[in-house]
Amino acid sequence: TATIAAAAATTTPATSTTEDSDGSDNDTTDDDDGDDNDDDNGDDNDDNDGDNNNYDDSDDNDDTDNDTDTDTNTNTNDNEDDDDNEQIVSGGSYIIRNPIRVECRGHVMGPALYLIITFNLALTNHLMALCATATTTERAKRATNALELYRLTYRMQATILHREDPGAAAAGTGDDDKDGAPPSSPPAFAAAVRSIRFEMMVLNNTSQVHKTLTRDPLQHRWCLRRLLSTMMIVVDHRVRVATAEGAVPIDPAWQIDMDGFFRNTIYLILGDSYTSGVA
C-alpha cells in the first residue's frame, strides 16, 4: 500500500508538469502564430494600401497631364484659327448680287449665253451659301459648287475672248466697252459679257467665296490681286476717255460696282496703314 501511494504521489506531479509544459507550449505557439499573423497581415495590408495609393496618384497625375495636354492643344488650335481669320478678314465684302439678264428678243448670242447661264448658276449657289438658314453641310456644298462654276466661267470667258478677238484679249477691252456704257443691242450685249467688266465680276465674287466660306487666304489674295490689276487698266482707260471730246457719261451701276471693287482691294494698296486704321 505504501508503495502504491508513493507511486501515485510520484505520478501526479509528472502529469501536472506535462500539462503545464503542453499548455506553455501551446500558449507560446498561439502567441507566435498571433504575432506572425498580425505582423504579416498588417505589413501586407499596409504595403498593399501604399501601393494602391501610389497607383491612384499615378493615374490622377496621368489624367491631369492628359487634361493639360488637351487644353494646350485646344488653345493652340484656337490661336491658329484666330491667325487664319485675321489674315482673311481684311478688305471689304462687296458682292455682285444681281444676275445677268438676257433680253427677250430673237437673237443669236453664241457662246456668250453659256457664260451667262454658268455665271448665274454660280451666283445662285454663292448667295444660297450665305443664307442664314443654311446648315454647315449645305453651306460647304454650295460654296464648292459656286467656286467650280466661277472657275468654269472664268476659263470659258478667257477661251472665247482669245478665240474670237485676240486683240481685245491682249488689251483687256473690247470695242463695245470703250465708253463704259451698258450695251443696248444684242451684239453689244454679247460683247459686254466677253469684256473686262465681266472678268472683274467673276474675280470679285470668287475672292469673296474664299474669304467668307472656304477661308482660303492664299486664293483670296490671288483673286484680289488679279482684280486690282484689271481695275488699273479700266481706270487708266476711263481717264483717257473722260478727257476726250464728247465722252459718254459712265453708267451709274457700273460706277457702283467699281466702288465696291475698290473697297475690297483697298488693303492691298494701303497695306499695314489700312489694317491699323480699321483696328
* Overall body shape: globular
Class of secondary structure makeup: mainly alpha
Strand proportion, as a percent range, falls in under 5%
The structural domain count equals 2
- Which parts are unreliable, with pLDDT below 50 for 5 consecutive residues or more? 12-34, 36-42, 74-86, 168-186
Number of helices: 9
Distance between the termini: 131 Å
Helix and strand sequence: HHHHHHHHH
Largest sheet: none
- What's the count of strands? 0
Summarize the amount of helix as a percent range. Answer: over 70%
Give the C-alpha Rg: 46 Å
**Mean pLDDT, as a whole number?**
69
Biased composition (Low complexity): 1-18
Biased composition (Acidic residues): 19-70
Region (Disordered): 1-88, 167-187
Structure summary:
Helix content is 78%, strand content 0%.
Descriptive terms for the model:
2 domains, 279 residues, globular, 0% strand, mainly alpha
What does this structure look like?
With 279 residues, the chain is mainly α. It has 2 domains: 1-88; 98-278. 78% of the residues lie in helices and 0% in strands. The protein is built from 9 helices and no strands. It has helices spanning 2-88, 111-129, 136-164, 166-171, 186-193, 196-212, 217-242, 252-270, 272-278. Helix 2 (111-129) runs antiparallel to helix 3, helix 3 runs antiparallel to helix 6 (196-212) and helix 6 packs antiparallel against helix 7. It is globular and about 45 Å long. The model is unreliable at 12-34, 36-42, 74-86 and 168-186 (pLDDT under 50). Residues 19-70 have a biased composition (Acidic residues). Residues 1-18 have a biased composition (Low complexity). Residues 1-88, 167-187 are annotated as: Disordered.
